[in-house]
Amino acid sequence: MISNITLFIGIMLMYSTPLVFAALGGVITERAGVTNLGIEGMMSLGAFVGAAAAYSTGNPWIGFAAAGLVGGVVAFFHAFASITCRADQTISGIAINMIGPGLALFLCRLMYDGATMTHPITNKIPKIFGSTLKGALGNLNVDVTVVIALIFAILIWFLLYKTKWGLHIRAVGEHPAAADTMGINVFRTRYVCTVASGVLAGFGGGAMTLAIISQFNPTAISGQGFIALAAVIFGKWTPHGAYGACLLFGGAQALTVILGGGAFAIPSEILAMLPYVLTIVILILFVGRSAAPKASGVPYEKGAR
Amino acid sequence: MNKAEYILRKPFVKTLIAIVLGFLVAGIILVIAGYPPIESLKALFDGVFSSSKHLSNVIIKSTPLIMIGIGVAFAFKTGLFNIGAEGQFIIGCAAAVVVGIECDFHPVIQIPLVLLAGAVAGGLYGGFIGLLKARFGIHEVLTSIMMNWIALYFSNWVCNLDRYHKPDTLGTYTVNKSGYTKVLSEWKMTSEGKETLLESEFLTNTLLKTDVNIGIIVAIILAAIVSFLLFRTAKGYELRAVGFNKFAAEFAGINVNKNILHSMLISGAICGLAAALYITGNSPHSIATLSAFENYGFNGLSVCLIAASSPIGCIFAGLLFGGLIYGGQSMQYAVGAPSELINIVIGIIVFFVALTHVIPILFAKFSKGGKKHDK
User: Fold this and answer.
1) Closest residue in B to A274 (Cα–Cα)
2) Is A258 within a domain?
C-alpha cells in the first residue's frame, strides 16, 4: 500500500514536470499580454536540441541549457512578430507549432543519418537521492528537474506578486496603455516575458528527453505543449494554479498507470481518457468561468484607443 | 494611398507574398542543409504537376483539409478558436466506421446515412465544447484540447472492440461497400470497366490509379453554402456580430450563448462530415489504432489561417497544403531532402501570413520618403 502511494506520487511528479516548466512559461507571457500558442513547437525543438547536445557533450546539464536556449530563440521570433509587428499571436503560435516539430525532425534526420530519433544519451539528469535508493522510498527518488520545476514555480510566484517587476508585468498584461503612462516599457517587458516563456518551454522539452525518456523521438513531445496551455487556463493564469493543474494532470496519469497494472476490468483506452475527463469534470464543478488577463493576445499600439 | 499600396493591401496578394517568402526560406534551409534548392523544389513541383495521377491524388489528399478549414473558419467568424477540430474529425471517423459496418442499405440510403453519422457525431462533439463555453464560461481552447485526447482514446477503444477489430491488423473492418463515395468504385474493378478506362490514359491515371471520390465536389458546395450562410443570411449576421463584439451583439438583442453553441455545433458537424467523406472515399475505409494525432485538425487550422478564414479561400489554401504534403514525398524520394521540410515551409507561410499586414505599411513608409503629408 505504502509503495503504491509513493509510486503514485513519483509518477505524478515525473509526468507533471515537463508540463510545469512549459505552463509556467505560458503564465509569464500571458500575464504580460502575449499569448503563446507555440509552446508545443518550442518544447519539441527543446526536446531535440537538449537530447542532441547532451549526447554529443555527455553532459545532461549542457543539454538542458541548450534546450532552454533554443526555446528562447524561437520565442524571440514569436515576440518579434507579435510585439514589434503586431501580428496575430494565434497565427504566429500555430506557425511555430508547425515549424518546431518539423525542424526538430528535419535536423534529426540530417544529424543521425535519416533516423527520426537521436541516440540514447549516456548520462541522464540525476535523481535527487543518487541511484542507490530502492523500494517504497525509491519511488520517491525523482529527477532533479522535479525540484527545479518546483523552485521555478515558487520563484515566478514571488516575482509576479511580491516584486516591482511582477507588478509591472501584470500591469502590462491588464492595461498596457496605463502601464506605459507610468513609465513602464511595455515592449521591453513583453519581449523579456515572451523570451522567458520560450526558455521555460525549452526546459520542459529538455526535461522530457533528458530526464524521462533519454532520447528524442517523433512522439517525445506529443501534445504536452497543449496540455501545458490548458494548465495555464485551468490555473487561472497564476503560477501556483498552473502548478496545481499540472500536478492534477500528472496525478491522473499516475492513476491510470497504477490502475492499468492492477486486476481491474477496465479497457486501457477508457483508463487513458481519465485525466482528460477528470479535467473537464473539475472544470465544470469547481473552476468555472475563466477570465484571461485583459490585454492578453492584443498587440499594444501607442496612442490607440 | 497609391496604386502599389492598394494592391499590396489585397488579402490575396498578401497571401501570395507569404507563400513566395515561405518558398524562399525553404530554399535557404535547403542550401544550408546541403541539398540543391532548385532541383529539390523542382522535384516538389513535379511531384504535383507532372501527371494527372499526382494531381488527382493532391485533390483527394486536400479534400479533408479543405473541409476542416471551412469548419474552423466558421467558428472563427463567431470569435471561437476551434482547436478541437482534430477531435471532431477523429470522432467523425469512428462514427462513420461504426455506422458503415453496422448498416448495409442501398447506396442511396447508406451514403447519406454514413455521412450523417459522421456529421452528427462531430457536431455533438463540437457542440459540447460550445455548451461548456456558453453555459459555464469554460475557455473553448481548454476543453478542445481535452476533448481531442478523449476522442483519440475513444477511437482506439472502438478500434479494439471485438465487434469491429479486424484480427491480425491494427485497424477495424472496412465499411460496407454500399457506403463508398468513390466514383464508379464497383464498375472500375470489373474487367469491362478496366478495359474501357485503359483506353484513355487520363482516365487510367485518375480513376483507376487513385481513389477519386465525390469529396471535393461536396467541399466546394459546402464552401458556397457556408459563404452564403455567413454573409447573406440573418443567422450569419448574428454569428459574425457575436464574433466582432459580443457585448455589442448582446446589446442589439442577439443571444450570444445560443450563437456560440450553434457555431460550435455547425463547425463540428463540418469536421465530422469531412471525416465521414474521408472514410467512405479513401482506402482503407477503416480506422486504425492511433498512437498520436494524425494532425488533420491542426493542419485544417493552418488551412483556415492561410485562407484568412474565407470559406472559398480554404479551397485554394487546402489544395496548396495538400499539394505541398504530397509533393514533399516526391522531393524526399528524388533528392533525399527530409519531407519534414514541408511542415517547415507551411509553418513559415503561416508565420508570414501573420506578418503580411506589415508589408503595405513598410511599403508606404519607404515610398513616401520624408514627405509626411503626401496623400
Assistant:
1) B150
2) yes
- Residue in B136, B291, B341 nearest the CB of A289: B136
- A61 assigned to some structural domain: yes
Residues from chain A that touch B302, judged by Cβ atoms under 8 A, are 94-95, 98
Mean pLDDT of B247-274: 94
**Tens digits of residue pLDDT in B202-218:** 777 777 777 888 899 99
Q: Is residue A83 part of a domain?
A: yes
Q: What is the ipTM of this complex?
A: 0.86
| Nearest Cα to Cα of residue A115 among A107, A125, A103 | A107
Helical segments of chain A, H only = 2-31, 39-57, 60-79, 89-111, 135-138, 144-162, 164-174, 176-181, 186-207, 224-234, 239-261, 268-282
Closest residue of A to B158, CA-based?
A269
CATH number at A82 reads: 1.10.3470
Instruction: Provide the residue type at B320 as one letter.
Output: L
Taking CB atoms and an 8 Å cutoff, what residues of chain A touch B365? none
What is the grid cell recorded at B122? 462531430
Domain span at residue A201 reads: 2-287
Contacts of A100 in chain B (CB under 8 A): 347
- For residue B213, the number of C-alpha atoms closer than 13 Å in the C-beta half-sphere is 26
Q: Could you give the CA distance from residue B307 to residue A286 in angstroms, rounded to a whole number?
A: 39
Give the chain A residue nearest B355 (alpha carbons): A87
Amino acid at B276: A
Please tell me the pTM assigned to this model.
0.89
Residue (of B219, B259, B292, B287) closest to B68 by Cα position: B219
Tell if the CB–CB gap between B160 and A289 is shorter than 8 Å: no
In a domain, A295, yes or no: no
Min Cα separation B298/chain A (Å) = 9
Domain extent listing, chain B: 36-336
